[in-house]
Amino acid sequence: MELPAVSLKAIILVHWLLTVWGCMNHILPASYAWGNFSVLAVGIWAIVQRDSLDAIAMFLTGLLLTVLTDIIHISVFYPAHDHLGDTTRFSVGMAIFSLLLKPLACYLVYRMYRERGGEYTFNIGVTSASQDRSTYEPIDQSEAPPQWPPPGKAAQPPY
After folding, report:
1. For the chain, what is the largest distance between any 2 Cα atoms, rounded to a whole number of angstroms?
2. How far is CA 6 from CA 25, 108, 158, in A?
3. What's the CA gap between 65 and 101, in Å, rounded?
4. Going by C-beta distance under 8 Å and a sequence separation of 6 or more, which residues neighbour residue 37?
5. Among 59, 74, 58, which residue's Cα sits nearest to residue 18?
6. CB 70 within 8 A of CB 95
7. Each residue of 91-107: pLDDT tens digit?
8. Which of 119, 130, 132, 153 shows its CA 20 to 30 Å from the CA of 69?
9. What are the backbone angles phi and psi of residue 154, rounded to the nearest 5°?
């Protein structure tokens, strides 16, 4: 089953609205807001630079990281049952709904990453050992190193 094409703008708008609603009651700490709004700012960068693989890869990585941090924030700062007012219940509910939508958003952003020419694996710049043997040079049959000075020339006196 093929999912319909979803705009990056729609993903950012939905997550922005849910994050604003999740921050309404100050139950969640400021780090929840900073983390989510920072990732949404990177998403805006991905909208502005449509051909940038770095922007969409950083947005996807940020979304994946905020899944983990949202789980931690909601589980640690969830209020006791007797302190749940209507706005608190709504605010935490929107944060949970945002968390539930993030895996779908990650999948859709990953599809956009692939459409922009991204690879299946993320390259973070760490070099690894290659199995390419085309440039292999055996070291056991090395030539004798060149002598300095060449045998036909006399050595120059030191200065």
Report:
1. 97
2. 30, 7, 75
3. 14
4. 16, 19
5. 74
6. yes
7. 999 999 999 999 999 99
8. 119
9. -85, 150
* CB contact at 8 A, 8 and 47: yes
Cβ 8 vs Cβ 91: under 8 Å: no
How many other CB atoms are there within 10 angstroms of residue 108's CB atom? 20
DSSP 158: P
Angle between helices 86-115 and 53-77 (to 10 degrees): 160
Residue 52, burial from CB neighbour count under 10 angstroms (0-12, 13-18, 19+): middle
Lowest mean pLDDT among 69-73, 104-108, 113-117: 113-117
Write down the residue that tokens 């209507």 correspond to: 86
Please state, as a whole number, how many other Cβ atoms lie within 10 Å of the Cβ of residue 15. 22
Token pair for 137: 């040079």
pTM over 0.85: no
The amino acid present at 29, given as its one-letter code, is P
For 85-154, the three-class secondary structure string (H helix, E strand, C coil) is CHHHHHHHHHHHHHHHHHHHHHHHHHHHHHHCCCCCCCCCCCCCCCCCCCCCCCCCCCCCCCCCCCCCCC
Instruction: Report how far residue 8's alpha carbon sits from residue 47's, in angstroms, rounded to the nearest whole number.
Output: 7
